[in-house]
């Protein structure tokens, strides 16, 4: 979604702002802008569309200045346009504001400010913020207190960067519900909504908490709470490396991230399983006694992470007697789930900033339930609000369509399930060792799928032009069918539906014709579920559907039924989703490629959905 960068120091701010905004492009945006201080005044440059348009305009105007703030906007209130792009100004252009999040009470605030004579020039919720600060500055309130008091009036979620024409040495940052960091560097100090944006220039960062305001100068950072009390926060070394956010020779971030999956899974297994087969997971305060008496787990997540959660439900139920539910964050927060302090909430999120997942976690915590999160981004809001965190450590995921974060979530949920089953005495040492041996085969199997990418590209090129596609899977591969369809929709824009194959006769079979590609996940299972999947494939074949099968290497039966087959190495069924989904990621990838789409930045999507 939106991105914020700010710089204060003795150099021109513009190159830092543009570099930071480029690093945030992956989050999704539809307009962008910067404001810098020049000779005691503010100069603003904004435009609709990509950053390249903003760069051309900045170059044409010869814009330089310092300090400065910049923003990429993903439209919520008001269409994507130059006048709605940030930064927004007060009546006299003496202060500029960039904002992520939503000001929920903006309509009331705006009415009041207009009645008091303030002039508005956009449709955004953000524009109330500069006017709220302005009215205090006019009364002679000091800048720091004006910012703090204005923040107290806002309802909703926000991360804000503020630049003042009257102060050549300072920018402000404030946070409530949306992430914001302050970065400390040799060339100056920075603010950003994601540390990745400033990672080349800072050695350490301060993660602001909700309700904190930072006054950032080239020499120092002062953090206060909304009461004006100073808060001491120790800067932490920055762990994200700038080169992790580069394409490393791949044509897109998504393709790079697809290829990183064997390494991500291999190192996760190495980190969490020692040479004696002991599984090490930090459960924080959730002790073994709690895990033994657990009767209920509720998994909450959104999008791809929710499909990982569905897999977690299946695997936990498979290994333990615990009743497990998986729910969408956006639904969980508004229903009346029954749970108590003996229910564990598992929140799954790549970013750790997804608004609906966070709201679900907060609602569960307020009712006493402990929260275990599976998260990729260190120090994210979710990680900080959870009782224990399993960091997937997949590295920054820049492609908007999630790939390596998903397989890492599956592996994390598998390890979690194994450990919980072991602690509860529901898994024999022999079974555990066999499962771990089989899990260790997964990275190599994924590697072999990657080697088949040219074949998968040919299949994608053949089938991408149809209006719609159906994805079918069963049991552990039902979430994979959902995820395969989501990947296809997200980046190729071909409509796709994921279905439990057994549900096909209850409706979607009506869609099948010679124009409908049907992707059937039909890898071998230890029981008769494979045969059931074969029956489903025959039903599709009888209606002339165009079958693309994902099948186990050497399976000739599927080849006789399907128009195209993607063979994957044989792995234990429980772990086959981590392998099979890679075939579907590549299928979606090459369909999008054939359609000429912007794969890393699909239209309308944001990497992390920080507003409801
Ligand atoms: O950061 P999160 O894992 O919480 O994000 C959840 C979803 O927004 C995310 O998975 C989304 O569905 C992606 N676009 C999937 O590719």
Compact summary:
The protein is α/β, with parallel strands linked by helices and 612 residues long. The site of 5-amino-5-deoxy-1-O-phosphono-D-mannitol (M6R) has 16 residues, from α9.
List the helices and strands and how they pair.
Elements: E1 3-9, H1 13-24, E2 31-38, E3 41-48, H2 51-61, E4 68-73, E5 88-89, E6 95-103, H3 106-115, H4 128-138, H5 143-153, E7 156-164, E8 171-176, E9 181-184, E10 188-192, E11 204-207, E12 212-216, E13 221-225, E14 230-231, E15 236-237, H6 253-259, H7 261-272, H8 288-293, E16 296-301, H9 303-319, E17 323-328, H10 329-332, E18 343-349, H11 355-366, E19 371-375, H12 381-385, E20 388-391, H13 404-423, H14 429-440, H15 442-451, H16 453-463, E21 468-473, H17 478-492, E22 495-500, E23 517-522, H18 529-542, E24 546-552, H19 556-561, E25 564-568, H20 576-594
Parallel strand pairs: 16-17, 16-18, 18-19, 19-20, 21-22, 21-23, 23-24, 24-25
Antiparallel strand pairs: 1-4, 1-10, 2-3, 2-4, 5-6, 6-7, 7-8, 8-12, 9-10, 9-11, 11-15, 12-13, 13-14
Bound molecules: 5-amino-5-deoxy-1-O-phosphono-D-mannitol.
5-amino-5-deoxy-1-O-phosphono-D-mannitol (M6R) binds near residues 304, 305 and 605.
